[in-house]
Design a protein that fits this description.
The structure is a single chain. The protein is α+β, with helices and mostly antiparallel strands. The chain has one domain: Alpha-Beta Plaits. Helix content is about 45%, strand content about 20%. It contains five helices and three strands; from the N terminus they run H-E-H-E-E-H-H-H. It has a three-stranded antiparallel sheet. A hairpin with a 4-residue loop joins strand 2 and strand 3. Helix 2 crosses helix 3.
């Protein structure tokens, strides 16, 4: 019994040590965006928790640093139409978003081809 408790404590401590918290800058502006952004973040392997704050356009992320990287989360968010940490959205994906999810002043996203090439 004592050995089992020690093993469980070791596993719990290891899991906590690998967990990190960070903030991701995301462009979005409505409740539909919130659901889309959170779902894209949580679908990334290793992400335990993600909450997007519309007023600050920041995503609070708790993830396992051994299983994922913030750039993977940002890429998944960009794939659903929202720029994240400088990873731009393809124009075709942005154009498919509902009008309420697009900025009134026009497409806030850089040309995806140009900015994503710079990341390579």
């Amino acid at each position: 019994m004592k050995i089992h408790i020690i093993i469980l404590l070791f596993l719990a401590t290891t899991a906590i040590a690998q967990t990190e918290k960070t903030t991701v800058s995301v462009r979005g502006n409505c409740d539909m965006c919130k659901a889309r952004i959170e779902k894209a973040a949580i679908s990334t392997k290793g992400v335990k928790y993600a909450v997007w704050q519309a007023d600050t356009e920041k995503l609070t992320l708790i993830y396992n640093a051994k299983k994922t990287a913030v750039s993977e989360v940002s890429a998944n968010i960009a794939a659903v139409g929202h720029e994240a940490n400088g990873i731009a959205v393809l124009d075709s994906v942005y154009a498919a978003l509902p009008m309420c999810c697009q900025y009134v002043s026009g497409n806030p996203h850089k040309k995806a081809d140009e900015s994503n090439e710079a990341l390579k």
